[in-house]
């Protein structure tokens, strides 16, 4: 059995969080089970973009503080690192409040700037991952529970995509991002190259709606932990109330036969995850109903069966973050406005995810709009 601990924690007060993390880890054997004296322990939070902690875009700094202190108590040497979707890791850590915690606790910030090639044996034969991610003695994964416009949910496995350095993320979106199942396969193959020793999920305040960067904070009031990321993601999805058929990563993990992907082998230590929330998290905008169509129809009807990004009136400040972040270079500034090449657009929605002004919305293709209106699906 793969055990996943679940602990109710009401807020991000410093002592509340410290005590909550200690209670969370106790039934798993405590931090001492995962960290030995002298080991260099990489703590990998979610540093998606430079937003304040209350926006629920990044892992909360008080959870990071509590985990750093537990690592130090076990005799480990805490390192903190990630590669954000846009901008420098240091700037995101400062804006989110995490850098202050790193400095106050004496932990070391290790920016993900140098990539190391790693051979893989699945569909994708090689990844280039951050050196600190590969060289640390232990890896603690610290994701934020959020909805996700491409994968429906982002949690433990998806958070590890931050091990891909900087602009290389765009290359992976271009290579695999046009197909959600293929992108899920890629994420799981990356996960298998270095599985975290421990996963601790920040779900005290989660994100719902158009996550991972443009959704709304939602009080959930729990932390989750376990050493199998796939199993922890399964329990997190139950907390969030997300239907299994919408969980592309979970479906891919079952297809691959990965440990923790069978619900019957996952045991929850703590409250019933199905009863944490009175209502499920609000899901992202349905952006695609072309799955199951043959390839030649997908190509011909792609614009009609999918949503496409466009500018929300009066919000765009022409900062060009989306232009730089777009994997297929389908966005440009021309004539004082953003212009999209929808034939090149792969619908990864990185532009919406990383826009600092929430200036991009989605417009449904007419067949997608018609199917939503009629309540039908493919």
- As an assembly, this protein is single chain
Q: List how many beta strands DSSP finds.
A: 16
CATH class category name of the largest domain = Alpha Beta
Q: Which band does the percent of strand residues land in?
A: 15-25%
Highlighted features:
378 residues, alpha/beta, Rossmann fold, 2 domains, 10-stranded mixed β-sheet, two-stranded antiparallel ribbon
Task: Describe this structure as you would to a colleague.
The chain is of the alpha/beta class. The chain has two domains: 2-275, LarA, N-terminal domain (Rossmann fold, 3-Layer(aba) Sandwich), CATH 3.40.50; 295-374, Alpha-Beta Plaits (2-Layer Sandwich), CATH 3.30.70.3270. 33% of the residues lie in helices and 23% in strands. It has 14 helices and 16 strands. The chain has helices at 14-25, 61-73, 89-96, 98-105, 131-135, 156-159, 168-176, 180-193, 229-240, 248-256, 295-305, 321-325, 350-354, 366-374; strands spanning 2-8, 40-45, 77-80, 108-109, 115-119, 126-130, 138-142, 144-148, 152-154, 198-208, 216-226, 266-269, 307-311, 331-334, 337-340, 360-364. Strands 1, 2, 3, 4, 7, 8, 9, 10, 11 and 12 form a ten-stranded mixed sheet that branches. It has a two-stranded antiparallel sheet with strand order 5-6. Strands 13-16 form a two-stranded antiparallel sheet. Strand 10 and strand 11 (216-226) form a beta hairpin. Residues 287-294 have low confidence and may be disordered.
